[in-house]
C-alpha cells in the first residue's frame, strides 16, 4: 500500500484514516493470510492475544519510508529524533543517504505521532510492509512448533500445520526466500561426540549454557567455560574459550637456543566474538553458537582451523544480554518479542513537558565508555536508545569491559566481532560521527572487503562495508568503537546479519535461514582469522576456498576446495576508503562525484547539530541533577 500525494492537500484527511482502519487485504502481502482454526493448537495465549488485538485495533505495523533527496533524509531524521525519546515509534532501520529507505515500526500509541509526521511531509513515498507484526511473530512460532511436532512423531498434525504454513508463504520472491534452504545447509554442520543442539531453531538461554557446559565436559583440552559476571536478574553471563591448551608457539630457527621459559615469552592471541547484545536479535546468538561448534569440530580435521586454534584463543559469548533475551521470548506481543534493551530496574527521567516517565532497560550498545551519550542515544529511560545513567552503569557492559581488560588478556586481543541483526552490513570503526576513522582504516577495511567477498561465494549474499555512521546513522557508546579506541584491538567489526534490507521481516529472521546465515558468516570470519595470523607473523596454513553460486543453490551443496584463493576485492582510492562508503561491487568514483559536494555540506550541518545536541544534553544532565537534589 502506497502513501503518495496524488490529490490536492485538501484531500489529505482520508490518508490518516488508513492508519486507524483494521488490517486490510492485499494480494501482494505475505502477512495478511486468514487465521486458521488450527491457531489454537499452539496455546490459547496466541489466539486470545490475536482476538484482543483485532477488537481493540492495537496492531503494530511496519512502514518503509523512501528518500529521494537530502530534504527527505532530513525529514526522516526528524522522526528519528522523536523516536529516540520514546519507544512508541521504533526505527528498525534508518536512512542516511538519498535513495535509501527507513523501516519504522509504529505502535498503537505512536499512531498519532506518525500521522502528524505524514501530514507535515505529505510528499514522502511510504509503504506499509508489515500490516500486523504479531502475525509475523506468530508465523515463526508456528514453524518451530510444526518442526518440533514432526520430530516427536506427530506426523498427521505436522502435515496439517505445514499445510497451514504454506498459506503464509505465498510470495515466491527471492527477496523473501533467497533460495537458502536448510536441506543442503545442514550437511555443513560438524557432528560432535556426546553433544547435540537443535540447529536451525531458536532456543532459550539455559539451553545455550547447557550446550557450552557439555562441550567443556567432552573436550576439556580444547574448551573452557568462562563466566564474565551476572545480570540484574542474577543470570550468569557465560561463554567459552576455545584453543589448544598446549600453547604451541613458533619455534626459533635454532632450536638449541630456545629459552626454557618460552611459553611465558608470548601470550596466545585472543579473538573475541559476542552475540545477542540486543535482546530481539536472536539470529546473532544462534550464529555465535554455530561458530563454537565448528571450531571445536574442526580441530585435527581442518588444517587451517587446527593451526589457528594452536595459536589463537577464541573467546565466544553467544548471549551478552540474557535477561533481555529471555524477556523477549516470554510473549508474542510485539512490544515484548521486539524488546531491545536489558532489564535494568525502573529508572525515571523528566520529559520535555515537565512530566516524569519511568521505564526499565538500558541499550547495552550505548553504555560503553566511548563518547558516551553524545550521538544516536538518549538520556530518557523510556527510549530504546537509553544510554544509562553513566558509562558502564550496566553489569553486562561492565562485565565485558572487565574481562577484556584483565591482565591475562589485556594487550592480546587482535580481533573483536560483535554480531547483530539486521541489514547485511560489515561495519568497522568509528560510528559515533561522520568521517571519523582510525589510523589503520585502510587495512581494517581491506580485510572486511575480503571477508564479505568470501561470504558472497557461499550463497551469493551481499554485504556492504563501511562505518556505522555512513551505513546507518551516528551512534556513540558502542562496544566495537570502545574496543578499538580503549583496547587498541586491530580488527574490530560490528556485523549486521540477515535478512537483507529489502526484506520486511526485520529482526524476525525465518528459522530456515538460521543455518545458512551461520555458515556464510563463519566463512567470512575465517578471513579475519587469517588476518590475525598474518598480522602477528604466526604460522599460517592456506585458507581453502568455499564456493557456491546463488544460481545453483537449490540443486547443489556448498563444496570446499583445498586450494588457496585470494579474494578479489576492489578497495578503491585512499580517499574513497576514508569516506567509509566504498563497497565491493559498488559504483564508480564518477557516479558518486555529482553527489559528493552536496553530501559534504549536509554532513557539515549535521556535525554542527551534533555539537549543539552535546551542549543541550550537558545542560539537561545538570538540570536532572538539580531536580534530584530537590
From TrEMBL:
Domain Peptidase M14: 201-532
Domain of life: Eukaryota
Region of interest called Disordered, as start-end residue ranges on this chain: 573-630
Cofactor(s) the protein needs: Zn(2+)
Gene Ontology MF annotations: carboxypeptidase activity; metal ion binding; metallopeptidase activity
One Pfam family recorded for the sequence: Peptidase_M14
Protein's name according to its UniProt entry: Peptidase M14 domain-containing protein
Organism annotation: Heterodera trifolii
Amino acid at each position: 500500500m502506497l502513501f503518495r500525494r496524488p490529490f490536492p492537500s485538501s484531500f489529505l484527511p482520508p490518508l490518516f484514516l488508513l492508519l486507524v482502519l483494521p488490517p486490510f487485504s492485499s494480494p501482494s502481502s505475505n502477512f495478511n493470510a486468514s487465521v486458521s482454526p488450527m491457531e489454537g493448537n499452539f496455546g490459547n495465549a496466541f489466539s486470545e492475544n490475536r482476538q484482543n488485538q483485532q477488537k481493540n485495533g492495537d496492531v503494530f505495523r511496519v512502514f518503509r519510508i523512501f528518500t529521494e533527496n537530502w530534504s527527505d533524509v532530513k525529514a526522516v531524521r526528524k522522526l528519528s529524533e522523536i523516536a529516540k525519546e520514546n519507544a512508541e515509534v521504533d526505527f528498525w532501520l534508518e536512512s542516511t543517504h538519498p535513495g535509501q529507505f527507513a523501516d519504522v515500526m509504529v505502535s498503537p500509541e505512536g499512531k498519532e505521532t506518525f500521522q502528524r509526521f505524514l501530514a507535515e511531509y505529505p510528499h514522502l513515498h511510504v509503504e506499509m510492509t508489515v500490516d500486523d507484526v504479531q502475525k509475523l511473530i506468530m508465523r515463526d512460532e508456528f514453524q518451530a512448533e510444526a518442526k518440533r511436532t514432526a520430530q516427536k512423531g506427530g506426523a498427521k498434525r505436522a502435515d496439517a500445520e505445514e499445510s497451514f504454513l504454506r498459506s503464509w508463504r505465498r510470495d515466491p520472491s527471492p527477496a523473501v526466500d533467497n533460495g537458502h534452504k536448510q536441506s543442503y545447509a545442514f550437511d555443513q554442520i560438524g557432528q560432535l561426540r556426546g553433544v547435540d543442539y537443535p540447529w536451525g531453531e531458536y532456543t532459550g538461554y539455559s539451553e545455550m549454557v547447557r550446550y557450552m557446559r557439555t562441550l567443556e565436559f567432552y573436550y576439556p583440552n580444547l574448551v573452557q567455560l568462562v563466566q564474565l559476571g551476572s545480570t540484574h536478574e542474577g543470570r550468569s553471563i557465560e561463554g567459552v574459550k576455545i584453543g589448544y591448551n598446549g600453547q604451541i608457539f613458533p619455534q626459533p630457527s635454532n632450536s638449541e637456543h630456545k629459552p626454557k621459559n618460552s611459553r611465558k615469552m608470548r601470550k596466545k592471541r585472543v579473538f573475541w566474538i559476542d552475540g545477542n547484545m540486543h535482546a530481539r536479535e536472536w539470529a546473532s546468538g544462534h550464529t555465535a553458537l554455530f561458530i563454537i561448534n565448528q571450531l571445536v569440530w574442526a580441530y585435527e580435521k581442518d588444517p587451517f582451523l587446527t593451526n589457528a586454534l594452536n595459536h589463537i584463543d577464541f573467546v565466544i559469548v553467544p548471549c551478552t544480554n540474557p535477561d533481555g533475551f529471555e524477556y523477549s521470548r516470554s510473549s508474542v506481543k510485539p512490544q515484548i518479542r521486539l524488546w531491545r534493551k536489558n532489564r535494568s530496574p525502573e529508572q525515571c527521567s523528566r520529559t520535555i513537558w515537565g512530566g516524569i516517565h519511568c521505564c526499565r532497560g538500558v541499550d547495552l550498545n550505548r553504555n560503553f565508555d566511548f563518547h558516551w551519550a553524545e550521538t544516536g542515544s538518549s538520556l530518557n529511560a523510556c527510549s530504546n536508545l537509553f544510554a544509562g545513567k553513566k558509562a558502564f552503569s550496566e553489569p553486562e557492559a561492565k562485565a565485558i569491559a572487565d574481562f577484556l581488560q584483565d591482565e591475562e588478556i589485556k594487550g592480546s586481543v587482535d580481533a573483536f566481532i560483535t554480531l547483530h541483526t539486521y541489514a547485511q552490513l560489515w561495519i568497522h570503526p568509528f560510528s559515533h560521527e561522520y568521517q571519523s576513522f582510525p589510523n589503520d582504516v585502510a587495512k581494517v577495511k581491506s580485510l572486511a572487503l575480503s571477508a564479505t567477498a568470501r561470504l558472497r561465494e557461499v550463497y551469493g549474499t551481499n554485504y556492504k562495508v563501511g562505518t556505522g555512521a555512513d551505513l546507518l546513522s551516528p551512534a556513540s557508546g558502542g562496544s566495537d568503537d570502545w574496543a578499538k579506541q580503549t583496547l587498541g584491538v586491530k580488527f574490530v567489526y560490528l556485523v549486521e546479519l540477515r535478512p537483507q534490507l529489502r526484506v520486511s521481516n526485520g529482526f524476525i529472521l525465518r528459522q530456515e535461514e538460521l543455518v545458512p546465515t551461520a555458515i556464510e558468516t563463519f566463512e567470512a570470519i575465517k578471513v579475519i582469522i587469517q588476518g590475525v595470523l598474518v598480522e602477528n607473523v604466526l604460522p599460517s596454513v592456506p585458507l581453502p576456498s568455499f564456493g557456491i553460486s546463488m544460481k545453483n543453490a537449490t540443486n547443489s551443496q556448498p563444496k570446499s576446495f583445498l586450494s588457496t584463493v585470494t579474494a578479489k576485492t576492489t578497495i578503491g582510492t585512499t580517499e574513497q576508503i576514508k569516506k567509509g562508503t566504498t563497497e565491493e561491487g559498488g559504483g564508480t568514483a564518477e557516479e558518486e562525484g555529482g553527489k559528493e559536494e552536496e553530501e559534504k555540506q549536509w554532513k557539515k550541518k549535521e556535525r554542527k547539530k551534533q555539537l549543539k545536541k552535546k551542549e543541550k544534553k550537558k545542560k539537561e544532565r545538570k538540570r536532572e541533577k538539580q531536580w534530584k537534589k530537590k
